[in-house]
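Protein modeling request. Please complete all fields; requests missing the sequence field cannot be processed.
Requester role: graduate student
Desired output: 3D structure, token encoding
Chains: 1
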Amino acid sequence: MFEGVLARQANGFIDAYVPLRRPLLERSYLPPALAPAPTFSEALRAHLADGPWAESFAVAPGETARAVERALRDVMLGSSTLRPGGIGLVGLDLQSRTHHHLSSLLDLWGRLGDQLPEDLLHLRAILEANAEDAIEPLHVVHDPADPRLTAVERAVLDTLVRHHGTPLDLEERRATLIAARDQCHGRCGSALAHLQESFLAEEAMKLPLDETVRVFGLRDPAAEADFAASLAQSWLDMDPALSPADIGLLLPAGPHYATYVRDAFARAGLPLSGLPSGGEQRDLAGECLLHFLTCLRQPAPPMALASLLRSALMPWSAADGRKLSDAVMAGKFSFESVVALEGSALAMARLLGNRRVPKAHEAAERLSALVRNLTTDAAFAEEATRLVELARPIQGGLFSRPAQAEVPWEELAAQVLVSPWRDEAAGPALVAGVTIYVDGEAPPRTVRHLVVLGFSEGAFPAPPPVSPLFLDSEIAAIREHCDLHLFSQEDILSVRLRVLRSQFAAARESLTVLAPYRDLMGARNAPSASLVLMARCFEDVEEPESLIVDLADERWLPAGALPVAPETKSLPLPPLAVPSVLSLGADLLLLRTDEEGQALAQSPSRLETLLVSPLAWLMNEMDMVDKPWAPETLDVLTVGSLFHQLVERLFPPDTPLPAEADIRARLPDLLAEEIRTTAPFLAGGAWMVERQSMERDFTKAALSWRATLDALGARIIASELDLRGHALGVACRGFVDCLLRLPDGSLVIVDHKTSGSHSRRRRMEHGLDLQVEIYRTLAAQATTARASAEPGLEVKALAHDGPIGVAYHTTRDGAVLLHGLQVAAPPGSVDVINADICGAATLRLKGEIARLRTGELRLTRADELTTLEKAGVGLYALETSPLVSLFIPPAPAQESEDA
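Delivered output (899 residues):
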């Protein structure tokens, strides 16, 4: 309160004016003793059963109480006495909604008696005090025309002047105050100074844009924070006289940017002054209910389901919740196979595992099951009770519909207002720290360079709140007839724009505005509406968006548009000495064992990881892999899984090839069915283009595969064949996508790859292929994991003494890369590779495995990785963990010829 007001104790020793705040008022007027419980909010709730809000309060008591309290507080601030009796309603139409709502609020205020919010209670005591009641006289200086002041604040200031008079130099100090508030600090003649002067002008002259004002577009808040830290570092590196305190960051209101800014500037080694703490107590009840409703609307988003499973309100331990959520993010939805559950935990797991979309009454019953099986931990009893309150009106609404009615999902989600209780106290103020400004707050000081983050829709300024009871037209009528000064949305927006102008005006040398293209959820962002006010000030800016220079994709940057800024870094660290071999002192192949202590089988994919990076292999064995939480995406693994399932169903073993027309007719339905099972998120409307693209690509690949099989005269005798045995001296297990028999009786093991053939061919020619050669080794041992009394067709086929070929079918170009067999007149899609496809890989892996048995782990050098990549080997193993890339020894230095 009292923004823009300065004060000093009239008899004080120091002739200095400071912002008027509550502690200074309390030193002049003793605050009244606080009444015992209940608090104002609690007392208010007791009177809400009657009035125009009664029905809403019966359905949603928490939300209704907060809305009515806000409306009543606005009325209190709009009065000049903080007493309801001084507000008249004579000028209002008795039958109008305005009269009904305002009279109800005044009646509610009257029933509360002398009870007021704590901060207003002290102001009323000042209004009703005598001059003799003051402990110390207080002189104030303010702008009487300041639109930020409420009626109560103006009345208090008038009371202080009446009690203590004014300073002798009031007019001079007032002029200084107004001049300092409205001053533009940009260099005269610069684009920055012009923007500061013309931002809110009725008409703005257009001047050329220069380097003092820049607007950049970046992907998201994380990218903005990194860019801002990098930019600050570049300024400090270029100007030794520049202090971090000369750089300002203007952030959107709320805690969301604080985390990104804190992390980015910590990495850069730059201190921050006044960063909001971002501390908060989460609304567990609201989050739990919102996630549950989101998951009821199948397909359940894995992140929402994982968040729900990890909620403190679930009836299992935090450790079990972590296991369940990790399983969901890994694509495993069978909860009972992850942890042992019983009682309410088992009931909750089955409730969350129900993948059928409910109708209205069933959805209400599932809500009942949710609240019935919540945690019984006393530490979360309040949140559990609140969830019951939040769920009750939603259940009532669902039961009021026909039993088989569709559920209005968007309407239900809108009823759940997740309201975190935040503690956004500013962090420590540092003399040498980067200055933090917050949207809607007056700038604490001027800076040389100001960077604005989060310049997107809904910020700069934030939209004014909507009155829960009055329209703007009704507020105008109340002002005119009731001597009650309420703020309209237009008033609030005007004040917030003035504050934004003062924040821009605090920059002396440059203003850099960063606009994120996406919000924290990845949704598209529009730029702030204030971009229009900026764009009208400059020449050659036809549309406001053309003011933004896109930094999200460097290919589209104009020459020289990207500011030179080094990568964010902390203090220089000495180079990390990475050894070439780690001695761990134990057989590393025994890290995963069965009940009998035998090493578990390695898969071809694990051995391929070992080929690239033994460290990545070790982290896989120890389950120390990176497990990020991210929204669902159509990645290579998902596409491959869907294609494998389709091919297996379109081309069943030991049956004639399907007709082309049959493939075209069946594939769309089969794909839709597999999507529902394997990747249900793809069934959503947002993924329609991707589904159609997959359908076209899969149809083309399936028809090409059919043509190849027909040209070869091949017969499919097995799909998803489970093979076990030994390869490279270790136990191995793998699943063969497809086993073919050619007309001459020879066999071909086929692995489908949803990629092109170029890299795979290069890898095979360099002898670095591995997967199908392991399959051939296991097949030659003629052992399968399928236990049956009568050996199947594939077992008998593998037991023959004929040659076994191997092949990759690459779906993107329809090629078949065949090795180990000579085919007379192969069709055009078949490419016979005669090179030793696995010699180099086998030699390399045998050495690695021998070292693992002795407890040694060799770290792959940078030059080896380059060689592997050039040979077509994918370096996906490096993505196992960020740590893998940190422990890569450099290439050995080459000796000179003179040495």
